[in-house]
Specification:
The protein has 642 residues and is α/β, with parallel strands linked by helices. Helix content is 42%, strand content 20%. It folds into 4 domains: 96 residues, no CATH class; 57 residues, no CATH class; 216 residues, P-loop containing nucleotide triphosphate hydrolases (Rossmann fold, 3-Layer(aba) Sandwich); 103 residues, Valyl-tRNA synthetase, C-terminal domain (Helix Hairpins), CATH 1.10.287.380. The strands form 5 sheets. Strands 5-6-7-3-8-9 form a 6-stranded mixed beta sheet, with helices on both faces.
Amino acid sequence: MTVLTLRDVSLAYGHRPLLDHVDFDIAAGDRVCVVGRNGTGKSTLFKVLSGATVPDDGEVWRRDTLRIAHLEQEVPAELPGTVFEVVAAGLGELGALLTAYHRCLSDIVGRGAAAMEESAMLQQRIDAMDGWNLDQKVETVLSRLSLPADAPFNSCSGGIRRQVMLARALVVAPDLLLLDEPTNHMDITAIRWLEDFLMSYQGALMFITHDRSLLKRLATRIVDLDRGRLTSFPGDYDNYLSKKDSLFELEQQAIARFDKKLAEHEAWLRQGIKARRTRNEGRVRALEAMRRVRSRRLTTPGQARIDVDGRFESGKLVFDVCGVNFRYGANWVVHDFSTRILRGDRVGVIGPNGSGKTTLLKLLLGQIQPESGHVSRGARVQLAYFDQQRAQLDMNKSVREVASDGSDYLAVQGRQRHVISYLKDFLFPPERIDSPVKSLSGGERNRLLLAKMFTRPANVMVLDEPTNDLDVETLELLEELLSEFAGTLLLVSHDRTFIDNVVTNVLVLEGDGNIQEFIGGVPDRLGRLERSAGVQGPAQGMPAKAARPVRTQRTAAGSQKLTYHEQQELLGLPSHIEAMEAERQQLEREVITREFYRQEKNVIIEALARLQRIKDELARSYERWDHLEVLASPNRTGHKAP
């Protein structure tokens, strides 16, 4: 069943058509990926579909009662309320009731009977609207995305805010879900959960993404937006690439035939006086029409040309890290970490959001200092650093000023180049180079940061999430460049295909300052990474942590033998935690039911207190388990783990 249709829709900004008389249909159950170069209008297309933007011409038909949820590429800077409240707000009136109900639950100890009376009243209204299933959906989405339900939205980082808005879109369960770069700033575990969620999603789905793993797994149809035209390619991504190449070749052949015919007509018109006296006026009119067609032709977007000046080798030792410790408050980010990074190493850094990947890079770069231990940099190291926050870009300056500090020329690989010529390599047309940076799209800002970074010679590249917002063509070009780069590479990314094609070993940040080093790419460590993030392991029914093998901690100290009592304690902790986890889950299921708050007041208060005691005991038990595992670990010498 068709849920939405575009007929002969056009939309232009200035002289540039983004949608040029396009036709499009989407049916229930479709999973459509929209692809195209940065700036071609993919996000604008989504705004037309959602109704946020009205086209210049044509018709947009939507099925009656069609519910649409749209995750935009840019997240709002501020929204009132907690994370739970922002997500629940997507449910309208019911969301407001659920928000008020959860506030009452948190106030029961402080407000007592008044909070209980209010919660009972809210419970009746939620019962009448059959809202408890939706409440559970909010809780589930928050849990799966590891979002802090009680944290104020405005205090969250940009990455967390984006995930909150994603949760808000998912919880509505719309008939048509529009996702614009949903995996930006998401860690690998959350991306895998999102994939599984969307695979079972019953509504229609349209998404824009640079994540090729997500694209290949989800898309049943690919729609290409190129120079204002929409072309649909049923099937998978590989089929799209093959058909796209064939269409491009046919287009180039047609253009060549047209240009040849136009040249013949132009030559005929330029003949001598005798020829002009006898010329066919119809042929002249045909020539003029061909000239108009040629002037309106939109050329195929070019391909970025990216290169790095790596003429000078660094010394053999690039970074020497010994016994480094760093924390924020009581939270360890790096704990007793030692490693050596040598010339030519290609190291990926992966881990859940908030585990400290960017902090680790800053320690290596010397931007922050460790509490103890030391980080040494080798000889002749020339660094190029890509900052995921784009702090190196002044939003109020022009593209020219950022790329060349305002000069018309800049030195690139030992020779002078005009800034316009250099920026063309990164797909900036001459009319864009004096535009302010704040007017650029996310992908354009990333290209500008790459352009600025590659003006400097480098034999060590440190890239923190360089793939966000890049179109697939530029992403693949960057991937090729990094694969051929002869120097040393440190790469933070959640793009599984990208990082697996580029790196040869990975540092896995598991939280609590624990960092493990492994040979291989992302797929080799996905299971371990998910278990460390608290995802249910293969041993069903066991606590997530118990399902994983005993961890190893790399420290500067030697191994310490456990006492007999500690050995018995370590053996008994998994079953103890399993029992507590089961009781916690049972209590959490009970406290969200309407029957729970119909009990005696002292029974309710005792049950809530018991739930809190279990959570506290679980936290202590996991901490004790970590401590005993570290003491029992035989691999604490600082060598790379196999």
